[in-house]
């Protein structure tokens, strides 16, 4: 039935996602689309423990996730996709044009990013990637929690 | 590991968020807390291993403050076990989210509101200092235990720290804390409402109820981003202004 | 207000403000605790209890996930107790809560400001931090704590000034005071109802537990 949230958050699964957004959207499935986590079993074990038993969690590489997006979007269960960075987001959106709306929930500084919001740091390359996605009509907003005010990409940059 | 170092690290967990900032969140706090556990790395505090481990620990980190001990212990153990640096970084990164999610659900959505609602209810029935004391005790018994146990469990298990998270007591706490909070809040609402409005006339009581219902509607459905503090400020300011005008 | 009372409140404000996130988090920053003790310092425990309890109803909305932003209701409760303390009957409650909410909101903004300053510190010393120089890390960490203490003391001071101003020129009569009190309680109770349902919805059969609690509470009120 629905793909309820596509979120970029370098903390992946944590309280803001499973409790904050979880209570608002009540997802059945949380997909963690990250190449490194998909390759690492003990990390998956940890992330799986962070998800309440009311939600299922699946691990996928970005490419695998892109192949399944259509199925999730038309499935009867509600799905959240979590990505770790803007680069993964771009790859996912390129391969899965059905995604029309994305949420920036947390990208933190790794050295050469500029701060835009307390929880959002972007490099120039990432700003370029986001602009490109926006020109394709994808709605991009930054919002850490459902009850905080969303900020559109234009206001952000 | 000598017990002094474990004790020092435990104490420093209580300063975990001292330098919270959007750049690294609790990164510096992580370095401060883990430092006593890294002192006997090869070469000691002057050595290369110590400095590299401290530098790594000071990177971006964000988790539930009460669960942080598990990460501190596990990362320190991994450093001692000679786990490659890249994998230590992955461990730190992989721990923050799940620990945060568990702590948020169990503490912020369970133990805290449950204890606060019990404290509120008690303050309508007994001496306020007893109510406050009961609240602090109910909340801090699990809180302090969690910090103390977390560090030791993390230190014992190192990279296998996931095992600690399936501890039956922790899982039971996770299951019952939410329903307990709901029960306690449910009980507190009528009890506190009755206690606060004692002495008000009927009109003022109905007014309070009407404001309460409007608040619920506004914050739940109409403007969920407003928040209670701002709504309260607006409502009280409007009341003051209307009072002057009339 | 006596000099020692002001000193005591500033000190208590510092402890409460630091407890919110920076040191210990043993929840003396909860408005119920902060309010009762502030009331005791002023010599009016009852007033501190009532404004503290009302602000506690507000504070149940707070879920301090990650680095989310939330009002500093503890500092608010200290200011609210200072405003309401000594005022007869219902007089100080509404206006006390109003001052408390304002300080709580300013406290939230101030936290963001000091955290930005700490972030700037971290950026300017990034290489030294990443090289594992623990003495620099200690210094920056301590600076963060000192900043937060300064924030707490400054806001408590501001709260005391507001309290004094309100007490000199109390802007309401009896009817107004009752009305303000009713609005403050109403918003608080409404907030708790919403927080309760949100928390209940997140756990298994939570709404049943919430309803059971409500029934038990009503029964308690009726029987007593």
What's a concise summary of this model?
The complex is a heterotrimer of chains A (157), B (246) and C (224). Chain A is α/β, with parallel strands linked by helices and 157 residues long.
Outline the fold blueprint.
The complex is a heterotrimer of chains A (157), B (246) and C (224).
Chain A: E1 2-9, H1 15-25, E2 29-33, H2 35-38, H3 41-49, E3 56-60, H4 62-74, E4 78-83, H5 86-95, E5 101-106, E6 114-117, E7 120-122, H6 124-135, E8 139-142, E9 151-152, H7 153-156
Parallel strand pairs in A: 1-4, 1-5, 2-3, 2-4, 5-8
Antiparallel strand pairs in A: 6-7, 8-9
Helix pairs in contact in A: 4-5, 5-6
Chain B: H1 3-13, H2 27-38, H3 48-57, H4 68-80, H5 85-123, H6 128-157, H7 162-165, H8 168-197, H9 202-222, H10 228-245
Chain C: H1 3-21, H2 31-42, H3 45-59, H4 73-84, H5 91-124, H6 126-130, H7 134-168, H8 174-202, H9 206-223
Helix pairs in contact in C: 1-2, 1-4, 1-7, 2-3, 2-4, 3-4, 3-5, 3-8, 4-5, 4-7, 5-7, 5-8, 8-9
Proportion of beta-strand residues of chain C: under 5%
Number of domains of chain C: 1
Overall shape of chain B: it is elongated
Q: What sequence of helices (H) and strands (E) makes up the elements of chain B?
A: HHHHHHHHHH
Query: Separation of termini of chain B?
Result: 72 Å
Shape of chain C: globular
Helix content estimate of chain B: over 70%
What is the mean pLDDT of chain B?
Answer: 94
How would a textbook summarize the main sheet of chain C? none
Q: With helices defined by DSSP (H or I, 4 residues minimum), what is the helix count of chain C?
A: 9
Provide mean pLDDT of chain C, rounded. Answer: 94
- Quote the beta fraction of chain B: under 5%
**In DSSP terms, counting alpha (H) and pi (I) runs of 4 or more, how many helices of chain B?**
10
Helix content of chain C: over 70%
Largest sheet of chain B: none
What is the number of strand segments of chain C?
Answer: 0
Rg measurement of chain B, Å: 23 Å
List keywords for this structure.
heterotrimer; A: 157 residues; alpha/beta; Fructose Permease; seven-stranded mixed beta sheet; two-stranded antiparallel sheet; 7 helices; 40% helix; C: 224 residues; mainly alpha; 9 helices
């Amino acid at each position: 039935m629905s793909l309820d949230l596509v979120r970029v958050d370098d903390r992946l699964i944590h309280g803001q996602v499973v409790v904050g957004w979880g209570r608002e959207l009540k997802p059945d499935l949380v997909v963690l689309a990250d190449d490194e986590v998909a390759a690492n079993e003990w990390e998956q074990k940890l992330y799986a423990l962070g998800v309440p038993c009311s939600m299922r969690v699946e691990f996928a590489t970005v490419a695998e996730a892109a192949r399944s997006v259509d199925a999730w979007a038309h499935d009867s269960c509600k799905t959240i996709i979590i990505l770790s960075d803007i680069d993964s987001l771009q790859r996912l959106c390129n391969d899965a044009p059905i995604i029309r709306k994305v949420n920036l929930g947390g990208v933190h500084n790794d050295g050469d990013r500029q701060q835009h919001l307390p929880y959002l740091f972007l490099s120039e390359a990432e700003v370029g990637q986001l602009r490109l996605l926006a020109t394709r009509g994808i709605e991009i907003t930054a919002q850490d929690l459902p009850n905080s005010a969303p900020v559109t990409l234009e206001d952000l940059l | 590991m000598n017990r002094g170092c474990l004790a020092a690290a435990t104490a420093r967990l209580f300063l975990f968020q001292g330098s919270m900032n959007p750049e690294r969140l609790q990164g510096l706090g992580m370095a401060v807390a883990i430092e006593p556990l890294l002192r006997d790395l090869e070469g000691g505090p002057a050595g290369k291993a110590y400095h590299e481990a401290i530098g790594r620990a000071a990177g971006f980190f964000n988790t539930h403050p009460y669960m942080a001990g598990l990460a501190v212990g596990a990362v320190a153990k991994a450093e001692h076990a000679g786990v490659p640096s890249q994998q230590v970084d992955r461990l730190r990164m992989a721990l923050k989210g799940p620990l945060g999610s568990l702590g948020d659900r169990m503490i912020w959505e369970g133990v805290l509101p449950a204890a606060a609602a019990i404290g509120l209810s008690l303050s309508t029935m007994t001496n306020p200092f007893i109510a406050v004391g009961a609240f602090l005790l109910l909340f801090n018994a699990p809180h302090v235990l969690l910090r103390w146990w977390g560090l030791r469990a993390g230190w014992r298990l190192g990279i296998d720290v996931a095992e600690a998270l399936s501890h039956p007591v922790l899982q039971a706490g996770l299951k019952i804390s939410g329903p307990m909070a709901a029960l306690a809040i449910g009980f507190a609402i009528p009890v506190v409402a009755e206690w606060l409005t004692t002495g008000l006339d009927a009109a003022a009581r109905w007014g309070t109820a009407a404001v309460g219902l409007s608040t619920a509607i506004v914050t739940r459905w109409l403007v969920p981003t407003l928040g209670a503090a701002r709504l309260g400020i607006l409502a009280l300011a409007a009341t003051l202004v209307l009072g002057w005008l009339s | 207000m006596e000099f020692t009372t002001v000193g005591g409140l500033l000190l208590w404000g510092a402890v409460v403000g630091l407890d919110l996130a920076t040191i210990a988090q043993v929840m003396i920053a909860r408005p119920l605790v902060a309010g009762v003790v502030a009331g005791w310092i002023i010599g009016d425990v009852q007033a501190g209890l009532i404004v503290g309890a009302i602000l506690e109803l507000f504070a149940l909305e707070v879920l301090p996930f990650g680095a989310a932003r939330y009002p500093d209701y503890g500092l608010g409760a200290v200011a609210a107790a200072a405003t309401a303390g000594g005022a007869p009957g219902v007089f100080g409650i509404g206006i006390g809560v109003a001052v408390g909410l304002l300080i709580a909101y300013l406290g939230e903004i101030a936290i963001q400001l000091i955290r930005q300053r700490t972030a700037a510190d971290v950026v300017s010393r990034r290489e030294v931090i990443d090289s594992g120089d623990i003495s620099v890390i200690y210094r920056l960490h301590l600076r963060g704590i000192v900043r937060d203490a300064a924030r707490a003391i400054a806001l408590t001071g501001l709260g005391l000034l507001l309290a004094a101003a309100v007490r000199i020129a109390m802007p309401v009569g009896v009817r107004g005071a009752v009305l303000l009190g009713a609005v403050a309680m109403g918003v608080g109770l409404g907030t708790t109802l919403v927080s309760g349902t949100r928390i209940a919805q997140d756990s298994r059969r939570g709404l049943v537990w919430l309803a059971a609690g409500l029934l038990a509470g009503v029964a308690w009120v009726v029987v007593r």
